[in-house]
Amino acid sequence: MRAQQFWTKLVFSSFYHIGKTLNNSNMELVMAHKAKIFQRVPVTRLNSRIPAEYHCLVNLARLNKPVYTLVVFPVSANNSHTIVTSALLQKTLRKRPDWADPVIVLAHALTDEAASMIRNDADVLVFTQTDFFWTDASVRRVSQHG
């Protein structure tokens, strides 16, 4: 139980909550704030580093490198849409010159600008839970009017 309380506290401290309710549901838009980065993770140990909500996205049998850097943008504990903007992704990947291994990015959703930053990078694999179309501007607009 303590581990779950810690994780919940960690997740809530990792997001800026935007008070905009989407489609009159209980889901709200949450802008991802910070990624957890795991460097030099052997492919055989990736499963233990991937949060449960992302397990269904990653087929470990298809990964062909022995070691990866794992970048995880945690999913909010309150069933929110968590969006990674291009600014956040750029800030996170600035550290990349120090990473020698291919990168796996796990996120609920990326804005179109964030996705286009890494779309043609062969050393970055991206797994998202949704491909709903967000732009940096639309996320900003919702956050300002929430």
Descriptive key words:
28% strand; single chain; 146 residues; disordered N terminus; four-stranded mixed beta sheet; alpha/beta; 27% helix; globular; 5 helices
What does this structure look like?
With 146 residues, the protein is an alpha/beta fold. It has one domain. It contains 5 helices and 8 strands. Strands 1-2-5-7 form a 4-stranded mixed β-sheet. It has a 4-stranded mixed β-sheet with strand order 3-4-6-8, with no helix packed on it. A hairpin with a 6-residue loop joins strand 1 (15-21) and strand 2 (28-32). It is globular and about 45 Å long. The model is unreliable at 1-27 (pLDDT under 50).
Number of strands: 8
Overall helicity? 25-40%
Number of domains: 1
Content-based structural category:
alpha/beta
Output the strand order for the largest sheet: 1-2-5-7
Average of the residue pLDDT scores: 77
Low-confidence stretches: 1-27
Largest sheet: 4 strands, mixed
**Which descriptor suits the 3D outline?**
globular
What is the straight-line distance between the termini?
Answer: 33 Å
What series of H and E elements makes up the topology? Answer: HEEEHEEHEEHEH
* SS field, number of helical segments: 5
The proportion of strand residues reads: 25-35%
Cα gyration radius (Å): 15 Å
